[in-house]
Write a structure and sequence with these properties.
The chain has helices at about 15-40, 50-75, and strands at about 5-10, 75-80, 85-90, 105, 110-120, 130-135, 140-155, 160-165, 180-185, 195, 200-205, 205-215, 215-220, 225-230, 230-235. The chain has about 270 residues and is α+β, with helices and mostly antiparallel strands. The chain has 3 domains: about 5-80, Helix Hairpins, CATH 1.10.287; about 110-185, Elongation Factor Tu (Ef-tu), domain 3, CATH 2.40.30; about 190-270, conserved putative lor/sdh protein from methanococcus maripaludis s2 fold. The protein has a 5-stranded antiparallel sheet, with no helix packed on it. It has a 3-stranded antiparallel sheet with strand order 10-15-14, with no helix packed on it. The two termini are about 30 Å apart. The relative contact order is 0.10.
Length: about 270
């Protein structure tokens, strides 16, 4: 674990320190010349031009010292943010440049999760939305975060929009690179008609369900709405309270008598 600003590496600075020492000596000499020129001006033994030249030389020497001190300070590579270090890419004595990778550094808490959303939901996307993740490595566990970034660009070829969410990770269970599946609540429709996915029967370009009416299975075309794990919204074609068949659909025909066993199902609530 490292904190933001903590030193991680020090680049060999022996040559740079020698340059600093020389620049400081030149600055001190320029200051002595400037002081002497000021004394000579008071006794009218020097010209205004000589004094201005001495002042310019001293300012240039001071600027060189400040620049070298800044470069010397930057020989210490510091953590840009708090996190956990990973594999070290360099060893003592290696030659490095500003493009050389030195060490991996990952944020821990909160963790960032990324997901891609189809472009048809673009108008509903905004920061602050709640998103629930199921994590493949944490069986039976879900985590909840909030969207803090919505990419304004639609990405090809899938025509999706990139979202990022901040997810609390106090126990460090989530690691970078883990596969997650997110469920984003972009809007809520009260009193929507929802049926189990296994009640849906695609057939010849249409979507059907079988409804129980007067002890018979009646074929009913429907239009689907939003899908969620295990369930699908019925946009039109069903009324609230009607019973639909969820088993044995392949053996049913329109109008066949049935003896139904009622099974109550309900969508899982979001944690």
């Amino acid at each position: 674990m490292v904190q933001q600003g903590q030193g991680l590496f020090r680049i060999d600075d022996a040559e740079l320190r020698s340059q600093v020492t020389r620049a400081e000596a030149e600055r001190d000499l320029a200051r002595q010349v400037l002081d002497r020129q000021r004394q000579l001006m008071q006794s009218q033994s020097s010209t205004e031009s000589d004094l201005q030249q001495a002042e310019a030389t001293y300012r240039a020497a001071q600027a060189s010292v400040e620049l070298l001190h800044l470069r010397l300070e930057r020989t210490v590579v510091r953590a840009p943010f708090a996190g956990v270090t990973g594999a070290r890419m360099v060893s003592l004595g290696d030659y490095v440049t500003s493009q050389t990778r030195l060490v991996g550094l990952q944020t821990v808490n909160p963790q960032h999760a990324t997901l891609s959303v189809p472009e048809r939901y673009a108008e509903q996307l905004r920061t602050g939305l709640e998103v629930t993740f199921s994590v493949a490595a944490l069986r039976g566990r879900t985590v909840t975060g909030r969207v803090d970034f919505v990419d304004p660009v639609v990405r090809l070829p899938g025509r999706t929009i990139l979202l990022k969410a901040l997810v609390p990770n106090p126990r460090r269970e989530l690691a970078a690179g883990m596969f997650v599946e997110g469920r984003l609540v972009a809007s809520v429709r009260e009193n929507a008609i929802v049926v189990p996915e296994d009640a849906i029967l695609p057939m010849q370009g249409t979507t059907l369900v079988y409804v129980i009416a007067d002890g018979k299975a009646v074929r009913r075309p429907v239009e689907l709405g939003v899908r969620m794990p295990g369930f699908v919204e019925i946009a039109s074609g069903l009324e609230a309270g009607e019973q639909v068949v969820v088993g044995g659909l392949e053996r049913l025909t329109d109008g066949v008598p049935v003896r139904a066993t009622v099974v109550e199902r309900a969508p899982a609530t979001t944690p």
